[in-house]
Amino acid sequence: MNTANPSIDRKSESGRLHLARDGHILVATLDDPATRNALYGDDLFGDFEALAADANADLSVRAVILTGAGSAFSSGGNIREMHEKTGMFGGTPLEIAQNYTNGIQRIPRALMALDVPLIAAVNGPAIGAGCDLACMCDVRIASTRASFAESFVRVGIVAGDGGSWLLPRLVGYARAAEMAFTGEAVDAKQGFAIGLVSKVVPHEKLLESALDLAGRIAANPPHVLRWTKRLLREAQHERLDTILDMAATYQALAHQTSDHAEAVAAMLEKRPPSFTGH
After folding, report:
1. φ, ψ for residue 200 (rounded to 5)?
2. Which CATH number does the domain 9-218 belong to among 3.90.226.10, 3.40.190.10, 2.60.410.10, 3.30.70.2190?
3. In what order do the strands lie in the sheet with 118-122?
4. Do the beta carbons of residue 198 and residue 141 sit within 8 Å?
5. pTM
6. Which pLDDT tens digit goes with each residue over 71-116?
7. Phi and psi dihedrals of 138, rounded to 5?
8. Which of 10, 87, 146, 196 could form a disulfide with 81 if both were Cys (CB 3.0 to 4.6 A apart)?
9. How far apart are CA 162 and CA 153, in angstroms?
């Protein structure tokens, strides 16, 4: 990532993930119309790893938006490869298990290690692994054209990319079970009702709405944003005592930052703060 150029606009190594900067916001767009943004190939898996690593290393990135080009957010696994038993779906059972570990499971590992707040701008259907990809994000905003399907049973497989861990944490066990057992899709309105998405907006306003939220996030000190995200993530599976210890450590660090001093001074002086990441 070129931090010297805040307006970068380029494709990733795979050519299927388009990256653009808007100030402190990085917009990553899945762009593979032939497969409706399917998730396959070592090059794309590497793109997600590079995205997370580069954003973590660059304090000028304060929020990331993930969206899809075309009619779909992501169609999930590559059905043609599944049918032909090629790519990730080829080999013996042991080889297929290793293919998942060394393949698509690289995406949840990378995104769970992303310290920067991540917003999914779901522009259309999020199917199977595409639904799980949306669930890997911190916040989901849905277009009126969006839908979500934990549809692995419909193709005779299970969620191999962490969906069984992710979805219940967002919508609760019973609703996640209903989605996973039936494979049926829920539309954006239903997704909002069950807590899967935090907002539904007209399709033409989706990116604008995501950028607005990202901008409100990016207005805050970058170190504190990242520490806050780590606390929220760890709190999903750690005991309260552990989180309190982590919070005390991060709080001690936060009190020593220039951004904290600037925030307090700006509040007392009734002016907008200006944060530098120091």
Report:
1. -120, 130
2. 3.90.226.10
3. 9-11, 17-22, 25-30, 63-68, 118-122, 139-143, 199-201
4. yes
5. 0.93
6. 999 999 999 999 999 999 999 999 999 999 999 999 999 999 999 9
7. -75, -35
8. 87
9. 15
